[in-house]
Amino acid sequence: MPKYIFVTGGVVSSVGKGITVASIGTILKSRQITVSVQKLDPYLNVDPGTMSPYQHGEVFVTQDGAETDLDLGNYERFIDASLTAESNVTAGQIYSSVIAKERRGDFLGGTIQVVPHVTTEIKDRFKRLAEKSQAEVIIIEVGGTVGDIEGQPFLEAIRQMRNDVGRENVLYVHVTLLPYLTSTQELKTKPTQHSVNELRRIGIQPDIIICRSDHPISEGIRNKISLFCDVDRQAVIPLPTVSTIYEVPLLLEQEGLGHLVVDKLGLKSDQPDLRQWQELVARLQAPREPVNIALVGKYVELNDAYFSVREALHHAALFYNRDINLYWVASEDLEKDGGDALLHSAQGIIVPGGFGVRGIEGMVKAANYARTNQIPYLGLCLGMQVMVIEFARYALGATVANSTEFDANTPYPVIDLLPGQDETKNKGGTLRLGNYPCQLLDGSHAAKAYGDGLIYERHRHRYEFNNKFRKQLQEAGMVFSGLSPDGRLVEVCELANHPWMVSCQFHPEFGSRPSCPHPLFRDFIGAAKDVLREGAQPPLPFST
Ligand code: GLN
Fold first, then answer.
1. What is the pTM of this model?
2. Cα 140 to middle of ligand 1, angstroms
3. Bridge partners (DSSP) listed for residue 390
4. For ligand 1, is residue 459 a contact (CB within 6 Å)?
5. Mean pLDDT for the chain?
6. Hey, which residues does 117 pair with through a beta bridge?
7. CB neighbours of residue 5 within 10 Å
8. Would the CB of 49 count as within 6 Å of ligand 1?
9. Is the CB of 382 under 6 A from ligand 1?
């Protein structure tokens, strides 16, 4: 019988519930307990695929092609496992499935209601993941905060689970924030008491309360929360703000969370072995010389839009015991006169994924700058398309070259829909999504990075390289170093006369892990770290 840990949030969002869930996974895994993770998103979209990055942050793609919440990225990085579509459930999916069943006549004669029809559908998703993953513990995060209207059916479903599968198989963890009042210099517990009351009103008594705070939490505060919220004193777990998210599992373990979970759920467990995490955190906290990387994108005001890219850069830098000094460059700023100055101290340039025409010309400029100044460049998905456009325009002289996504009538469509691809289809879930194979060219930068000829990587895009232009671009010095096994799709391209300008149609950032950087990110930083930029040269060995 699998055990379930349900994690809810109180007081405010963004207190690190996702990282807490991921960390509980790490702690259990370190005891040789198998885990799987699921995120419940109470919004009515079927998936976040059509949501603006400004609304939602990054869309994380699973190997099996689901467009999911960025928390899944943290789960994968923390428990070092690849999740599947079953790990993200939205209210949109639940309702559309219930309504489809109603139309089919599955409930013939019945009135369809939130309880039991919607809640049963939700619980089926928990059980489906348990069955498919065969994990001993399923950790389920309820998105949003307790009290949100959309979240009610999800909370009701997790409440019912206690009776369905037995009290001893279910654990409720509540993550809250303790705000600090500067005037009185104290942490306040009242919002936590209120959100626990709100949970109790629905019939859920938390077993463990994790208190996020920017300030140290005294014994008195812990006792107070224990008394007012009716949880064991040792089940009030402080979670101070830390410099790196990878420290969270260590902190929670130190506060006894692992022992508590194992004890309360009656799990058989080995001694925790978190040595790998201790080592990782020690390396992250040691002073490291930074590498200056410019990330040129359209949504840079919201760093969460590039969450996995940023993490992957940090993992890669750590491989060389270096840090990342990340310049967030709004691509539109590069379009202005003198915009190039924003790139003058970059030792490497990265152009990540994106959709739509805004800011494209700035990205083309970034690719041009990288090519003509021999600065290492990594293009991810849109970043590859931009690299191709730039090369066609300025290395080949086809100044009108473009993608039909940005100019439907371009006479030189180097990036286009493939013959047979239907433009008029629904927008949701119709991209090329998830893992596809790619054969790498021997001796190329890409093949050197991977050390393997056949790779599988995650995709999320609609447009493709247009093969009509392959020969011309090849003759001008572009190397098509990764192709689909049938040779039809360009997956990786790079430049012959450049130290390291490599781009891929897929999203390698999703596969990077803190202790195992993605090979393309690793070699990109490997090339960038030794580049000397303006002002970075060592002083001359003689005085003038
Ligand atoms: N907009 C481009 C496409 O649809 C690139 C997508 C992306 O970068 N994820 O092909």
1. 0.93
2. 31
3. none
4. no
5. 94
6. none
7. 24
8. no
9. yes
